[in-house]
From TrEMBL:
Protein name according to UniProt: EVE domain-containing protein
Organism of this sequence: Thermobifida alba
Gene3D superfamilies (alphabetical): ph1033 like domains (3.10.590.10)
Superkingdom of this protein's organism: Bacteria
Amino acid sequence: MVIGDREALAWVLSTRQTAFPAARAGQASRLSAGDELLIYTTRGCFRNPTRDRGRVVALATVAAPVTRDTAPVRFGDREYPLRCPLRVTELAPFGTGPVLADHVAALHAFPDPRSWSVRLRRPLVLLDAHDRDLLVGLLRPDLVPLDDALAEYLRRGAPVRRSHRAAPP
């Protein structure tokens, strides 16, 4: 599961659910209870792609099928009316978790290592058993109980509040 926005990531981790745009209904509808999702944060997720790396940060399990919500969640100007609950019990502390770019050559999901990031322009990327096992094996040593790492992700996912001060007289 590809997440490219810090506020969306904070929402996913705090509410333990995920959401999809209506345009991805076909892909999202294939999810079933019990399916595993690796949560991947893009380089731009925390709005500093020169500093941050794209990382796998958690393993989640789909808790129930995707349903259409009458009150879609919104991030920026985008609407996400399709939702499903997740079980997330462990999370890599902020700034840890395997850097996906370091392992692209070993992953079947990216047959052309030169253009691998193009495949991450959708919310779900299908992994075969080899890719899943490799990434979970790399992720496991970094995982801690969710509550031990969640606060930093929530802090970094909070919207920036700009104050509007009156100009001095």
